Description:
This protein is 22% helix and 22% strand. The protein is of the alpha/beta class. It is globular, with a radius of gyration of 26 Å.
Amino acid sequence: MNKFKRFMAASMASLMALASAAVSTPAATEDPVINTVRQGSSSYTKACEDTDSQYIYDGFLGCDCTKEYSQFRPWAPGATDVKVNLYTTGTDDEEGASKVGTYYLEKMLVNGKWNGVWTIKLIGNFKNWYYTYTITTYNITNSSKSYNTYETPDLYAVAAGKDGKRSLITDLENTDPSSWDLDNHVYVQNPAEAIVYELDIKNFTSDPSSGIPYDLMGKFLSFTQLSRLNDSVGILTCTNYLANLGVTTVQIKPFYSSMGFMMPDNSYSTNESDPLQTVSECKSMIQALHKAGLSVVMDMDITSVSEDFPFQKTVPDYYLRIKTNGDKSNGSGNGNDCATERLMFRRYIINTLTQWVNEYHVDGFHFENGGLIDKEFLNEIREELNKISPDISVSCDTELPYPDNAMICDNTCRGTRLRLVSLANAKTADDGISFYNSTYSNNIMSYINGGKNMSDAIQTGILADKDNKLTNPAQCTNYLHDNSGLSLYDRITDSLGIARGTKDDNAIALAKLAVAMEYTSMGSIVIRSGDEMGYSSSQSSALDWNNLITYSDFHAYYSGLIRLRKTISKLTSGSTSSYSDFVFDTSSTDQIAYVINNDGNNEWNKIAVMYNNSDSAKWITLSDTSTD
Length: 628
C-alpha cells in the first residue's frame, strides 16, 4: 500500500489537487428547475401551426443584388401590403441623407399558390444604398383582422446602417481583409480536449491596462494588436495572452446586431457608419485569432429578442411564444422568448449559422439559455452544420432562469411533442453536441465550502456525469462561473462572507481547489474571462489586466493546470472506455482520491489526485495499482 499525505496547497509535481480552509457549509445546491414550464395549445399555437403548413418556403429571402438589379424577398404571410423604401444613407443624421423612393412588392406565386413571400426586382445598380420595408399586417391570431403598419429593416439583412434600422443593399464584395483566402477554420476535433475562454469584446479590451491603442479599445481590431500590460514591455495581453495561456478556443459573447442575427454589430467597428468596414474588421478579428491557433466560437442567444427586432414588425407573434392570456413569454428574463419550434424561425437560424460559418469562418456556436430551445431543433442545427463540417462545434447551457414566466406549446412544426433542452434529456441529443454540466459546477462549489458525504456526487462529476444524465465525456462541458454573472472568485468570497474584490488567502486557496477539481475531471472546460486572474464583478466591467500581477500566484497555478491537463490524455478522452482507468478510493465520504492509469505517449503512466475540503491535513491510503 502507498500512503500519501494531504498538503495545504496543490503540488503540481505530484499532481495533487490541494487547498483547504475552515468555512461554513451552505445548503447543497439542487439542480436548476428546468423543463417544467407550462405547456398547452391555444388559438395562437393553432394559428402558427396553420401558418407553418400553408406558407412553406425554402428559397432565397433577403436582398439579392448585382450591378444590374436588386431583388427583395421578405416572408410576411399575414401582410396585406408590403413596400420597399430606398435611402441614400444608413441614418438621417448623415451627410447627403435622403429618401430615394418607395416601391410596391407583389405576392410570389408558385403554381398559382402564394407561399407567404413578397417580391420585387428593381433594375439598375443600387449597391450600397439602404432599404427598409413598410409592412401592413395583422397579428397572426387576430381573427378581427385589425391591421397595423410598420417600417422595419430586413430580417435577412447581412449589413445595416449605424443603428441597424436600415438594411444595406450589398453582396459583401470587397469586405475580405488581406490574405483572407488563406484563412482556414481552426477546429478542435475532439470536443473533450477543448479548453474554451469565454469573453466579451468590450470588456476584454477596453481597460487601459490592456495596452490596446485607445481608438481600438472595445473594437474588433483590438484582437489584431500585439499588446502588452500597460503598453510596456513584458506581459502579453489580449490575443497573444490567450495563445500563451494554452486555451484551444475563444468563445465570444454575442457580437451580432441587435436588429438582426446575420450581421455584425457596428458598435465594434472603428467606423460605425460604414457597415462594410464593420464586416471587414469582424473578419480581421477572426483571422487574427486563427493565426494565433485559436478556434473561434460564436456565443448565440437565439432565445430572446427586444420589441424592436424585425420579428414583430414582419409577422407579428409568429416568431415569439405567447401565453394563453396574450402576454409574451419571458423565460430568459432578457426579453421576448423566441419560438424555436416554428418552421420559419428555424429556417432563419439555420441560414444565420451558415452565413457566419461560410462568410466569416466561425468555427462553432454556443447557445445561451439553452433551456428555452426545443431539443428537436438543437438536433436539427447539428444535422445542418454537419453538411458543412462535423467538426463545427455546438454547445449549449441548460439553464432556464425564469420558468414561471415561460410557456410553450404542445408540439413542434414537425408534429412531435415539444421538449426543451435539459440535462435530463441530453442523452437523446445527437452526437456532436455538448452540454454545460451545471450539476457538477454546483457540486464543486458545495464541496469546497465543506460539503459532507459528497464523494459519490463528485466521482460522478469527475467522470463527466457517468451513468447519470450525459452519455459520454465528449457531451460534458465543465465550468465554475455563475450564470447570473458572478465570477468564480465572487462565488467564493460570497460564500465566505467576504466583500467582493477582496484579496484573501483563504478565498484563493478555495479557488485553487475548485479549478484543480475541474481540470482533473473528464469533459471539456469553459473559463469565464478573468476567472484565471481573480476578476471580481466589483471591479469595472472592463477586465483589469493588472490582476495578472495582483493575483500572480493564482494565475500561475491556473495556467499550470492547463499545461498539466494536456499531458494526461485520459482526462481529455471523449470515450466511455476510459472510465475504468480512474480508480477511486472508497474509504472516505469527504476526501476524494483516485489514481488515473494513463497510457499516452511521452506521458506519466499513473497520476494520483487527492482533494481535501476540511480545515486540517488528512491521510489518504491508495491501493497500489503498479504493475512493476
